[in-house]
Structures are given as structure tokens and as C-alpha cells.
Design a protein that fits this description.
The complex is a heterodimer. Chain A is an alpha/beta fold. Chain A is about 45% helix and about 15% strand. In chain A, strands 1, 2, 3, 4, 5, 6, 7, 8, 9 and 10 form a ten-stranded mixed β-sheet that branches. By secondary structure, chain B is an all-alpha fold. Chain B has two domains: about 260 residues, Orthogonal Bundle (MetI-like fold), CATH 1.10.3720.10; about 260 residues, MetI-like (MetI-like fold). Chain B has a two-stranded parallel ribbon. The chains are: A alpha/beta, B mainly alpha.
Chain lengths: ~350, ~550
Amino acid sequence: MKSIVCLGLMRKVMVVSAAFVFAALLSACSDQEETSGTNHGPDSSEPEVVTVYSARAEHLIKPLFDEFTAETGIRVQYTTDTEAALIARLQTEQDRTPADALLTVDAGNLWHAAEVDMLQPINSEIVRENVPDYLRASDDSWAALSIRARTIVYSTARVDPAELSTYEALADEKWFGRLCLRTSAKVYNQSLVASMIDALGEERTEDIVSGWVKNLAVDPMSNDVMVIQAIEAGVCDAGIVNTYYFGRQEAENPEIPVALFWPNQEGRGVHINISGMGITRYAKHPELARQLIDWLSYEKAQKDFAGLNKEYPVNPKVDPVPEVQAWGNFKRDPINVEQLGALQADAIRLMDRAGYR
Amino acid sequence: MNVPQALYRLPLVLMCLLVSAPLLMLFKTWLSLDTAIWQHLWETQMLELVRNTLILLFGVGIGVSVIGVSLAWLTANCSFPGHRFFDWALILPLAIPAYVLAFVTLGIYDFGGIFQTILRSLGYQGFFDARNPFMVVWVMTAVLYPYVYLLVRASFIAQGNHLIEVARVLGRSPWAAFFEVSLPAIRPALVAGMSLALMEALADFGAVSIFGFNTFTTAIYKSWISLFSLQTAAQLSTLLLLFVMLCLFSEKLSSKAIRRQGRTLSRKRELIPLQGSSKWIATSFCSLVFILTVVAPLMQLLVWTAPIISGLLEPEFLEVIARTFMLAALAAFLVVVIAIAVTTVSFSDLRRSSAGSRFWSEFASLGYALPGSVLAIGIMLALGGLDALIANTGIGAPVLLGSLLGMILAYLIRFFRPGYGAVRTGFSALHQNYLDASALMGVTGWQRFRRLSLPLLLPGVMTGGLLVFVDVIKEMPASLLLRPFGWDTLAIKLYQLTSEGEWQRAALPALALVLVSLLPVVLLIYRSRSSPSGIKHSELPAA
């Protein structure tokens, strides 16, 4: 009796699973038809499709892509993953890649993509006009679309902003046991240290990084939000974070006893990094990819591209969103962000030597 | 049975070929060496990484065996208040991915979390860092002990209490009886459960990186993501793989114990009713584990999700849930079908099940031992290579990389072990005598499979299918890298938000993910409850 019941159940499971398999195959096929229709049908009424590999999270890009489609009729197909994985995939796929454009965060990653020859020149007057020189690759292989500032945060309860001056000064003894940092595994810190190597040389930089490590109140955190929360909770007094993480915490709690400080204003300025885009080496639709980058660099899209994540626009004609403007103006480190990529490997080795985990 | 001998091996051969493709890609990287990176890793951190990895292995090994075996013993053999509830509830942590429990745990116990906030409001000054080795070991133990619990519990039940009774009659104390008789008898189950748990712990990157606890996988990721040396990352992972193989192999050598557990014919289980304080100790212990591993994390997720809970029912989100469910069901179905094919065909005559086929079935299961994303890279390289081949020979357009087929193949390679392991365990219920008897009665081939083997395998098949199902739902790196456009799963949605540090918003997909994988776990339990030993005598066909 029991065996009949069991077999009955088994059969049901099989039928349901088989239905799933069938549905999956069907939808996969219809997907394929959709894309192949657009690829090969020259006169079809189907919309054109541009394909993007993105390391920028979906909720930060989808609203813009939707708007782009609404305006131009060009559909944007995208997949998200880490930069390293997307670049490895481009390298594996070579000329068979469906990707027309690569969108990543951090100049180091774009620099690497160009290094392994996975990008081609953008060749767009519009981009040259909308994006300042120091935010574009010298060989035109990518252009920044938003700027992220990495700056000092401090506890308004326990720190007088007059105590603060530069990134380097955080290595000073007076910060002993008062500093919180994110781990050196994050590319943001690697780029920051790369900018210091460029400005100060390896030896000085290593001293400073060692000083930071000595001053840590607790082991490095796995993300910037935890740094801000630790300062708020009183574990430490100061730290280094990207401004938009602070923006998010501030939006949740406007009374947060933590504030931003713009360091190195007498010197080279605040360290900035970018998120940016390039056209892939083997793009099937380079002209559509170019159109997308152009569109993203215009005033209208710039506001949202940066604003969605409380970052800074690259287009000088566009102001940041009001809550970001409220943090005040600051002098930016004018180093070409490309240089950060070139120095990234040195920065990683240096941080390892200095014991910055 | 007029099928050529070679054909029996076909399912296993195919599975081995499938697994060897990505492995080959990874081992191929040894053709050259980036000595600068190796030297740098060696000089700056290798000692710390190896030390931390060993802490993790020993900690989690001890943790899952102590918690898993003690809980299994209690629920399988004793009756105490809440016993019937804990019997199944203690399996539930299986549905929680390690990285989810990691970020939820930090959310509760870290500086800004509710735990320390309450402590401070009670006047406690000072802080403690929740990101310590103990917490990492605890988080991994909490999500991984169910593997041991599940397998050992089944083993205790199958064992019945007659062994214990004999030992007690011979004058052993309850504890002595437990250690001298019960424990050796559950060794195969314990080893199987522990090896699943330790492989996951060893390959984990998500949870340890949230805690900033650098293990061997950290070096793999560092080489790849930061130093852009995919080659070194692949080489490091092959070392990890060799280590796992060595452990599995030495375990096989050292245990001369009986691997096949005879099923007792008397199905009557008599639970030992716990008396006095011991019954409340048992209840408290089970409650504590359940609260810490399931209730507290779910509460924290609910607190985070409360303001955005309506997002759960948005059509777009429901679509993601449905898609995740479908992918998991599809993968589980395929793994189980292949596992059945491998067991019943390759081992159709138990006397012929040679050391060779056991070795190759271990080989086919190796995908589980690699860090997910490294295996994903291996699979990507293999699929990409095949695509290039297809394109070059002009047979057609490249189809594999970024296709549903590629994604499913990846799940198959990665999760063959849990599925096959469970089916194989179920298969041990199949005595050679049964097969011989059915042969004597003229029932062979498909008939024998349908009427004898399949019903006997069914409990194992269900367990295997559900384990794979849950594993696929929790899987992240391979899905990320290999999915077709638009095929986001819940784990991918989760990744998108956690990678941006959006912990609270990530709670929504995390909650959905846990709920979706809870469903089959509950189903699994109802199955195992309706036939507690895995097989009932009455399930044998009348023929």
C-alpha cells in the first residue's frame, strides 16, 4: 500500500519537474528567438538591442536603461557580476561575446580591461565634450560616468574638526586606538593608497599605512557602512569612507552624530574615483554602445546616474543632488584616474607589507 | 540482461567526463607560474591563512559533530517535551545560506547591532568585536550541522536500539554503551555529514569575508580579483582540491568498518523517556540551538524587511522567486535522474561494484569541493572552449556560455555529490539477496528497477533531490557568471544589494530565499517522518 502511495508521489514529482523542464526550455527558446530576431532582422520592427556587462549594481542602472529605451527605442540587455568575472568572461568569449559595453566601478578595473585589450576607443565628440580629460583614458578606451569621493568621516561628539587635516595625519599617534578602516581587499582603498604612492612615493606611503594600522581601534571592516556604524556606536572616532555610504546612513538618520571632512584641501585634494564605461573590443553594435555612453554623459542622465547613488556627476554642467551639495564643495585630487589603475598592484603589495589586512 | 558490459558504466563515464572538463581547465594553469605573486602571498600572509583555515576546519568539524550527533541522538532515541517538534525543526538551518547568517549575525551582535545597544542601555560600558574566530566558527557550524544531524539521525533510527540493549545487558553504562556501540555504528553517516560540512566550510568565501576572517579562499580571491591573476587563483584552488581528495582518500583507507549498514527487520523503535531534570535539559538544549540558528536570524530579517515587506509581492520579484524555484527543481531533477542511473546501472550487481567504480563516483563528486566561483570559472573556460570549437568548425553559433544549458550543467557538476550521496545511501537498503531473489522469480531489467529498486531508493532519492534543490537556491557565484540575460535568481538579487552594503534592503531577497528553501526542507521532513528509517518493510513489493 505504502509503495503505491510513494510511487504516486514520485510520479507527481516527476510530472511537475518535467513540466518545469519543458517550460524552461520553451522560455529559453523564445528568448533566443527574440534576440536572434533583432540581430538578423534588418527591417524588422523589433527594437535594436545593446548589451552591457555591468559591475554596477542593477538598482543603480536599470532606471537609466529604462529611460534610455523609452527615449531612443533601443533595448538594453545587461548582466551583472564582479568586474574580474566580467573581464574574464570577455576574455573567454573573445569575438563571440554578446557584450557591446562594459560598465564598472573603479578606474583600476577599467584600466585592467584596457590592459588586456578588451576595450576599443570610444571615439565620441560628445563624450570628449561632456567628460573632463582627467576622467577619461588617454587612449580613449573608457570614460567616467560618475565620481565618488573617498573622504574622512568623524564623530561629531568626540572629534573637533580642527583636529583633522589630511589622510596622512590619521597615521599620527594622537589617533591611536581611534581609527576604523575598511579592509585592504576593497579596491577603493587600493586606489586611495595608489594615489598616495603617486603623490608621496612608496616609502612615505608605507610609513603612513603602517601608522594607520597601528591606530586601528578594531580589525578592518568588510564594508564602509560598518565603519560609519562603528563611529556612531563609539568604537572609534574617525574613518575613511566613500561619501555615498555616509549619504545613505544620513538619509536613514538625519541626526546621526557623524560628519564628513574634506582632507588635503591645502595640498592635492580629496581622493576621487569613478564608475565608467567602455566599448568592448568585439562589440557587435559599437555604434549603439557609443550612443548609450553619449546619452549617459548628457546633463539629463548625469543627474540620475550620479544621483541614484548620491555620487558626483562627471559632466561639469550638472550639479549633484541637493543632499550631496549640502556636504559642501571641495578640492579634488586632479591625478588622472588612469594612473590609479597602473599603481594598483603596487598599492596591494604595499598594504600587505604594512600589515593592513 | 543482454546489455553489453561497457554500457553499464556509461552514466558514470559521462558524469566523470562532465566534471573533468572544468578540472582540466584549472589544472592546465600549472603550465606556467607567476612566481612574483606566489612569493608575495607566501611572504605576507600564507601562514595566517593556513592557520585560520585550520581553525575553521577544526572548529567547524568539532562543532557540527558535537551539535549534530547530540541532537540526532536525542531526537532519534529519546522522548522529551517538544521532541516531535525539534525532530524536524532542527533541520531548518539547512535553508539558511552561510553568507546570510553571517550578515544577520553581525547585524545582531556587532557594535551598532541590537545586542550591544541593549547592553549599553543596561549600563554596560565598552564594546566587543563580534568579528572574531569564534563567531565565524559558530556561524558556519550553525548552518552546516544539519548535514550531520540529518544523516546521523537516519543512521541512529536505522540502527534501532537493540545494539544499545545488548550492550546494556552486558553491563555497560549508558554512556559507555553510547561510545562503544552506537558511535562506531554511525561512523559512516558522521563521516559523510562532516565531509559535506567541511567541504562547504573550506570553500566558503562569502561568510568569512563578511567577518574579515582571512582563509585560504581569501588568497584565491585576492589573486584573482585584486592581483588579476586568474592563473594563480586557479592554481591555489587545485591545491585546495588536492587537500580535499587527500582527506577523503585517507578516510577511506583508515576506516575498515562496515560501510553497509544492515537494516534491522524489526521496525519497532522504542524511545527512551527522559526523566526529571534530564528531560528539561534536553528541551533547553534543543530550544537554544533552534532559537540561535533559526528564530533570532529570522526575527532580525523580519525587522529589516518590515518597512519594505510589500516588495515581496511585486510581480517582478515573484517572477524571480518562480525562476529560482524552477531552476532548482530542474537541477534537482536532473541530478537525481543521473544519480539513479549511476547507482542502479553501474552498481546493478552489488558484487560487481568494484573499487574502481567507487573511485570514479568519488571523482564525479569533486565539484562540491571547490570554491563555487573557481569552479564557475573552470566551467566558463570549458564552455567557452567548446563554443569556440563550435564556431570554428562552422557547425553553428556558439550556444553554451550564457545559456540555460550551461547554467544547468554547472549545477550538475557542482551539486552531484549531495544528490548522489543520498541516493547511494538509500541504495544500501538494497541487499544483494533482494536482487537475487527477484532474479530467481524472473523479474529483471526494467521490471526489477521499477518494482524493486526504485521503491527502495525512493527515500534516498527524495533526500538527494531536496538537498540539491536547496543548494541550488543558495548558489551564487556560478549563477552570476553563467546565467542567461535576465535570469537573475534570488541569490543574485541578494548579491547585488550586499555588494553595495545595502544590508537592510538585502534582507528582502534573503528572507524570500530562506522561505523558498524552507518549503522543501519541511517536505523532506514530512517524508522522513512518515517513514522514519528511510525504508519500511511494507514498501517491498509483494512480488
